[in-house]
Amino acid sequence: MPPFLLTGRRVSRKMGIKGDVVEHKSIRPMKIIRRVLKKTIGVVMPLGAVMALAVYPVFAGVPLPVAVSISPQACFVRHIGGTRVRVFVMLPSGASPATYEPKPRQLLRLSKTLAYFRIRVPFENAWMGKFTSVNPKMRVVDTTRGISERRLNDPHIWLAPALVKVQARTICKALSALDPASRKFYEQNLARFEEKLSLLSEKIETLFRGLKRRTIVVYHPCWGYFAQEFGLKQIAVQHEGKSPGASALAGLITAARKAHARCIFAQPQFDTRSARILAGQIGGKVVLIDPLAEAWERNLLDVAGRMAACLGK
């Protein structure tokens, strides 16, 4: 446990601990955090802000403070952990997981986090070293564990229900290790979540059943695992994070026409000018879908419905 997470009863008279109440008469742990933050991110926070965010007592029955990179992960963790977890999402709504830079206040919040569920999106990969520097004892749980390394060139494993099941099992094991007394609770929640995921897959399969055209054209190539699970083919406008040049765009127009595409699926986190140009060339339209929505199950079913409607035209 980090030195600034105080537990139990009378630990130190210097720290001013009476019963289960921590009186912040000493600020030495705050100074430690300030030095760590200054070293890792070059920012000095006011001492009052550090005290407000970085120190709190940990008692039995208090939800486990855990962190995730993106909102869909928060959905998964809450399905397993229920009211026994409190989830902090690093990526704000509307921000890009490719380029986001966490704020000092977020790093302060990580300093009181017991576990970080990573998923290997770009901003997380770039910042993980600083995350662990702020809180060296924070347990980092790799939710890509158990998923083929061949797949991990594409980090969007949260968009395929079959792969979410793998992540959910990893989350369950991690929460059980943090809170062994609640292991059965987490395992029961896992079983219920797996049933929901199977039902979701069945509903999505029904939407695509019988469709002759099965090629989706997307701006950002994040729907590959979804396409693979449900028998679709993905054509992406963006390649390696870059919009296409004139030659590549001409090739995309040809491929989209050959696939009889009528919709270009884009997401609000990216510039969609190239998608709109492509849509204009094929006489189609841009349809916005959000792969990062927190209402994950409802969103995925809605996205599938929109794709099926376009493929059925």
CATH H level, superfamily name of the largest domain: Nitrogenase molybdenum iron protein domain
Radius of gyration: 23 Å
- For this structure, the CATH topology of the largest domain is Rossmann fold
Strand order of the largest sheet: 6-5-7-8
* Overall structural domain count: 2
CATH level 1 class label of the largest domain: Alpha Beta
Along the chain, the helix and strand elements come as EEEHHEEHEHEHEHHEHEHEHEH
Helix content class: 40-55%
Main sheet overview: 4 strands, parallel
**Topology, number of strands:** 12
Q: Please give the alpha-carbon distance between the first and last residues.
A: 57 Å
**Overall geometric form:** globular
Query: Given the helix and strand composition, which structural class is it?
Result: alpha/beta
CATH architecture of the largest domain: 3-Layer(aba) Sandwich
Arithmetic mean of pLDDT: 84
